[in-house]
Design a protein that fits this description.
The protein has five helices and five strands, in the order βααββαβαβα. The chain is an alpha+beta fold. Strands 1-2-3-4-5 form a five-stranded mixed beta sheet, sandwiched between helices. Helix 1 crosses helix 2. It is globular, with a radius of gyration of 17 Å. The protein starts with a strand and ends in an 18-residue tail after the last helix.
């Protein structure tokens, strides 16, 4: 399938909202703190949050489209360091990839690499020094892709359940 990566358009909004929800549901498999399905208001709230960074020029949502069907998306933005962070960290321009999602049946076809090139080009154009992303430790498949693209392990977050859940 020939897949084109492009900027989001207004006609894509509802489909992209659904992809963001699908991603949250998928991440629940790997993260016990996540809901198996987000609350109904999540879809519009999160999408508007992402879209506001696009409108400000600090974020971008890329669409992977093949044969008129949206098969994936990526969302990244430039994040300003807080005054508190600057007490501890070097002053840099940091890009953050918040979401990347490809529908199951389209994975393994190089779409992820194309989406990453798209968002990395955007973040480079914003003079980012680094790009940061997070992936659940148990979600091995995308980690291999990220490493292939030059991303390195930076830190490990750990979690312990101290109360039995019903």
């Amino acid at each position: 399938m020939n897949v084109v990566i492009r900027n989001i358009k207004k006609r894509d909004y509802e489909q992209v909202k659904e992809l963001f929800v699908d991603l949250v549901c998928k991440m629940a498999e790997y993260r016990p703190l996540r809901r198996k399905e987000p609350l109904p208001e999540y879809k519009d709230w999160y999408f508007q949050k992402a879209l506001s960074s696009v409108k400000r020029g600090t974020g971008q949502i890329g669409i992977a489209e093949g044969e008129g069907v949206i098969v994936g998306c990526i969302y990244g933005c430039v994040e300003d360091q807080t005054k508190d962070e600057l007490l501890e960290y070097k002053k840099i321009t940091l890009g953050h990839i918040h979401d990347v999602y490809i529908k199951d049946e389209y994975r393994g076809q190089g779409i992820g690499k194309k989406l990453f090139r798209f968002i990395e080009d955007f973040l480079k154009s914003k003079a980012c020094d680094y790009i940061q992303l997070a992936v659940p430790a148990k979600n091995i498949r995308p980690q291999k892709l990220y490493q292939e693209l030059g991303y390195e392990d930076d830190r490990v977050e750990m979690l312990k359940n101290i109360r039995e859940t019903p």
